[in-house]
Amino acid sequence: MAAPKKNTAKEAGLEHAKGNGSVPEFSKEQELKALRDMLLIRRFEEKAGQLYGMGAIGGFCHLYIGQEAVVVGMQMALKKGDQVITGYRDHGHMLACGMEAKGVMAELTGRRGGYSKGKGGSMHMFSLAEHFYGGHGIVGAQVSLGTGLAFANRYRGNDSVSLAYFGDGAANQGQVYESFNMAELWKLPVVYVIENNRYAMGTSVTRSSAQTDFSKRGASFNIPGKQVDGMDVRAVKAAGDEAVAWCRDGKGPYILEMQTYRYRGHSMSDPAKYRTREEVEKVRHDQDPIEQVRNRLLAAKVSEQDLKNIDAEVREIVNEAADFAQHDPEPDVSELYTDVYR
Amino acid sequence: MPIQVLMPALSPTMEKGNLAKWLKKEGETIKSGDVIAEIETDKATMEVEATDEGTLGKILIPEGTADVAVNTPIATILADGESAADLAKAPAPAAPQKAAESAPPAEAKAEAPQPKAAHHPTAPAAVSEPEPDVPEGTEFVTQTIREALRDAMAEEMRRDGDVFVMGEEVAEYQGAYKVTQGLLQEFGARRVIDTPITEHGFAGVGVGAAMAGLKPIVEFMTFNFAMQAMDQIINSAAKTLYMSGGQMGCSIVFRGPNGAAARVAAQHSQDYSAWYSQIPGLKVIAPFSAADYKGLLKAAIRDPNPVIFLENEVLYGHTGEVPKLDDYIVPIGKARVVRKGKDVTIVSWSNGMTYALKAAEELAKEGIEAEVVDLRTLRPMDTETIVESVKKTGRAVTVEEGWQQNGVGAEIAARIMEHAFDYLDAPVARVSGKDVPMPYAANLEKLALPSVAEVVEAAKAVSYR
Fold it and tell me: Which residues of A touch B202 (CB under 8 A)?
């Protein structure tokens, strides 16, 4: 593929979210949608945590609580046909893409009604209908795969954009940089969304990363990057709009560093000794992405009752999903040998 | 004393070449670095540079001569003060074949314990028989395996716009081993894509493109380099269909030379047959004949699953008869009885077939009729064809260039035991690469690989002769 004219990082403008204050306002409808979608993820994850504690979910289970604004804001910047791919902390991404809570929860419990018929589990779910390409358990693998999705868009000459999500931990994998190089070389339409939740399992960013400003990680490939307040869904959406437009214009890849935080452990079995309870409480109290929206809506004179109704609707979806996921049968034993080849 | 210019080896596997053109005439002055001649191999045309200074005394091999063996003297250079009269002093040119065989001299000693060993034998003519179901009256073309592979890719790319080739040096350089020669010219840079040296990354990009519905052919310059890409091949390509409950698969071919070439030592000589053929979700193909290379690569490109297509650099230049059909497809998963026999079954694939077939010829001279089975596909393995043959012969020998422990031969032996135990008259014997990293020294390298003599010996042993 012929490489179009290079842009330099300087021309593209390495901007940083920190200190450049103004965030575009959401309309009331946008605020309500963001609230509902984030709440769905949070209630879903809380329920998944409960079911895990009851032994209904096995293996690993990585919860997304605290990071909801990232996927919800980014999803608001996409259009139908844009692809999403992520790592193992994937429940929020699936729900944001429009996959049904029932199918996701039933996969967590390993039942036949799950998105992968119970054969993939928490870390491996897909939906071609919703353009969600997984759900990948190997840290960093989704970055090359997501670059390949963008390659297919370029090959076909459509204007779809691929979103490859990965964490601050995955950002240190070699294949991430191999992918950056090819993406910029071939001007592939991929947004690399680095969800910096400050900890790669138990290792803080400062203990693992020589360059802790992840928006600069593409600098040596001339890929523009931006740091974003990943706790503010409006800031996420605005940055997403900019990055996606860049890709759709054929200018190549874009990096967004989402500064976010996970409230729960790395997985359900994480005692979280690497940070203090106070640190977690402070983020929850000062920056919670859902509370931010709720407070803005209340200030805009939306009634408590309207917000309670959203909460009730979300709880019903989640309870129904949990009920289905516990009563749906396990896959038929004949499924052991299916889907190895097609 | 006048200096001899020898036919140079231009690649690790080159055995001979054509002297295409002399660029200097007898009597012309030559400086070190001057291009004096052009040599053609089946891969490329290369220039021969003088490494010595003087006057071109005599051209020993005229231009236009074909199949000049490596190390054959092709000209003499006279040093300052020497004249044509001195030419007589130059060492007598050795006979071309002998020169090739005698280099390097250390090999002669290694010959001793296994006198019938052949290092890089050419493919016996018998193996290029077509599929039994090729229609009668079909025309055949004589092609190198390299050409058969290129034609297979070109045909599939013409047929399906979703098929593309990516890899290192596949486009502008025309392929590190010239397998993709001409594809860039026909299909353009959109579909024939040079990648950076980034195996892990481009394997992942290929798999991602396949997940999006394209049909990539990913060339590894050799499968030794694919170890860097192993995670994407196995964790992403092979397992996704299952992990997604059948929703999302990956139609992709990973291809390139596998196993030992010649004198490239341990890191460039590994046989990955056993590694890949252990993985559910992958199909693994390792053909031997030119017709199979073509028909199976076309089948692999059309297959909706990830396929590992193991080629062999030593075989690239070998020729065979390829059916001249619009769409010659060889089914994946079918072994083929290449030579019929009643006394012992020899099972092999890829370059292992070279030893197997030569051994069968040797055995025939001693009255042992070996049946030779070319596995062609390693996964799914055609157990039935192996078992049927063993039920007839009661004896089996496996031949592979890879290591013995957990090798494909071990798997074949186990299947024979499971399915034909009562028919066996002797334990299954395995001939394989030796349990060492591949050595560089020519004599040691030869010892590390299987040999015709070892196959003959094993066949006799299981026949109690």
Answer: 178, 182
pLDDT score for B184: 98
Classify residue A152 by burial, with Cβ atoms within 10 Å: 0-12, 13-18, 19+: buried
Burial of A146 (0-12, 13-18, 19+ CB in 10 A): buried
Closest by CA position to A142, among listed A167, A114, A118: A167
Q: Token digits for B262?
A: 């010649």
Residues in chain B closer than 8 A to A128 (CB atoms) = 247-248
- Say if residue B114's pLDDT is above 70: no
Q: Is the model's pTM score more than 0.95?
A: no
ipTM for this model: 0.92
State the CB neighbour count (10 A cutoff) for residue B245.
23
CB atoms under 10 Å from CB of A75, counted, come to 23
Q: Which residue of A has its CA nearest to B165?
A: A1
Instruction: Dump pLDDT digits (tens) for A111-132.
Output: 999 999 999 999 999 999 999 9
Query: Most B CBs within 10 Å: which of A336, A337, A339, as the mutation test of the B interface?
Result: A339
In order, the DSSP letters of B362-421 are: HHHHTT--EEEEE--EEETT-HHHHHHHHHHHS-EEEEEEEESTT-HHHHHHHHHHHHHG
The residues of B that are catalytic are: 199, 268
Q: Tens digits of per-residue pLDDT, B414-429?
A: 999 999 999 999 999 9
Distance, CA of A204 to CA of B437 (rounded, Å): 41
DSSP string, A78-137: --TT-EEE--S--HHHHHHHT--HHHHHHHHTT-TTSTTTTSS-TT---BTTTTB-----
Residue of chain B whose Cα is closest to the Cα of A154: B190
For an interface test with B, the pick among A138, A151, A156, A187 (most B C-beta atoms closer than 10 Å) comes out as A151
Cα separations in angstroms, B420 against B347, B392, B400, B438: 15, 10, 21, 34
Q: What is the pLDDT of residues A254-304, one digit of tens each?
A: 999 999 999 999 998 888 889 999 999 999 999 999 999 999 999 999 999
CA distances from A13 to A191, A202, B107, B311, B389 (A): 16, 33, 64, 47, 70
pLDDT in tens, B349-395: 999 999 999 999 999 999 999 999 999 999 999 999 999 999 999 99
Q: How many whole angstroms separate alpha carbon B141 and alpha carbon B148?
A: 10
Within 8 A by CB and 6+ apart from A342, the residues are B241, B246, B249, B304, B305
CB within 8 Å of A76: residues ≥ 6 apart: A30, A33, A34, A233, A237, A240
Q: How far apart are CA B419 and CA B255, in angstroms?
A: 32
| Mean confidence (pLDDT) of chain A | 93
8 A C-beta contact, residue B299 and residue B329? yes
B246 contact A CB<8A: yes
The 10 Å Cβ neighbour count of residue B131 is: 17
Q: What pLDDT was estimated at residue B98?
A: 41
Q: What pLDDT was estimated at residue B92?
A: 52
Q: Cα B281 to chain center, whole Å?
A: 25
Q: A98 - beta bridge partners?
A: none
Q: Are B271 and B448 a contacting pair, CB within 8 Å?
A: no
SS3 at position A204: strand
Pull the structure tokens for residue B398: 């496996």
A-contacting residues in B 274-313 (Cβ below 8 Å): 280-281, 283, 304-305
Q: Are B171 and B344 in contact (CB under 8 A)?
A: no
**Chain B positions in Cβ-Cβ contact with residue A135 (cut-off 8 Å):** 243
Segment B249-268 shows an average pLDDT of 95
Is pLDDT above 50 for B291? Answer: yes
